[in-house]
Design brief:
The chain has 323 residues and is of the alpha+beta class. It is 25% helix and 21% strand. Strands 1, 2, 3, 4, 5, 6, 7, 8 and 9 form a 9-stranded mixed β-sheet that branches.
């Protein structure tokens, strides 16, 4: 058996599972590309949208990025997750949002701090990346927000008025007859903004049909994995972590006691200094719980769903965060 006696630390350090104290673990998925920015928050790149090998152009994901600064602990607490409501599975954040929204006018305002975000994931060919030229010509996954999707959908399917003015549908995802996207990012009021992004004239992204097929079949990433149940944490785990976050959260619009009461009733837990849920939830008990006649009848709640917010800006702020 041969053995290479090159034992420099650079060569052997990767073979141990030891991590130096204080080293942060990054959960960044290296398959994803993000635009580079300068100190002023500006950046530019040219990309090309691609379908995956199943001809899926993009998929949408519901997620959240909750943040709370706790004055007692003097540190930030986060709840950042992809949400199972993406695949219409039970979602504790959706349940809490609904309870807050249906509580009162102030509850509706409080619910905004627990809203889910809508992201979209697609495959892209990086045509030119001035910030990281080593990415040129490579295929990545890319996450983008609703504003950019609206821009792409307008190009793919112009309105009747736009068609009457001579606008023709663009085949953005076609590797030979499609269009490059000139992404431009800037800082507006402290947030990244993609409003200056434009769609260029028709061009071929590959030299031949064979090269294009090879890239799509062998180099793109399947988008199905992001919509599989295995891609999401279990309901119980999400609920457990969301409750921990809520215990550190200081209500912004509702009285803290009212917020704690809502959380306690939704999840059947004790929260706050003294409040216990009026209806104890137990998986072991199958007997109905009697409610006092003195309790006022609750106003029937409307069937509401969380309104997704555009996450183009928030995702950019969270990009690369070590948690």
């Amino acid at each position: 058996m041969s053995f290479d006696l090159n034992l420099s630390w650079g060569d052997i350090s990767s073979k141990t599972n030891y991590k130096e104290k204080g080293e942060k673990k990054s959960y960044k998925d290296e398959r994803f590309w993000s635009i580079s920015k300068d100190d002023q928050g500006k950046g530019a790149a040219i990309i090309r949208l691609l379908v995956d090998k199943d001809k899926v152009p993009f998929i949408n994901i519901y997620n959240c990025g909750l943040r709370e600064y706790n004055e007692t602990d003097k540190k930030y607490y986060w709840f950042i997750r992809d949400l199972p409501s993406t695949i219409k599975a039970p979602d504790p954040l959706e349940e809490l949002w609904s309870a807050l929204y249906n509580h009162s006018a102030d509850g509706r305002e409080e619910a905004k701090n627990f809203g889910r975000r809508e992201s979209f994931i697609t495959n892209i060919l990086v045509v030119k990346d001035p910030g990281n030229p080593e990415n040129d010509g490579k295929i990545f996954l890319w996450k983008f927000g609703k504003k950019l999707l609206d821009k792409f959908m307008t190009a793919l399917n112009p309105s009747e008025q736009e068609r009457e003015l001579g606008e023709k549908p663009k085949e953005l995802f076609h590797p030979l007859r499609g269009n490059n996207i000139a992404l431009k990012i800037k800082n507006v009021a402290g947030f990244p903004n993609f409003d200056d992004t434009n769609i260029q004239s028709e061009s071929a992204a590959f030299k031949s049909e064979e090269e294009a097929k090879d890239a799509i079949l062998n180099k793109t990433y399947s988008l199905k994995e992001f919509c599989s149940p295995e891609s999401f944490e279990s309901y119980d785990k999400l609920k457990e972590d969301l409750i921990k976050f809520c215990k550190k959260y200081r209500a912004k619009k509702l009285p803290q006691e009212a917020f704690d009461k809502i959380v306690a009733d939704v999840f059947g837990v004790e929260i706050g200094s003294s409040y216990t849920p009026k209806v104890a939830r137990s998986e072991k008990s199958e007997e109905p719980v009697e409610v006092s006649e003195k309790v006022e009848k609750a106003t029937p709640k409307k069937e509401t769903k969380p309104t997704p917010v555009d996450d183009s800006d928030i995702d950019d702020l969270l990009d690369g965060l070590d948690i």
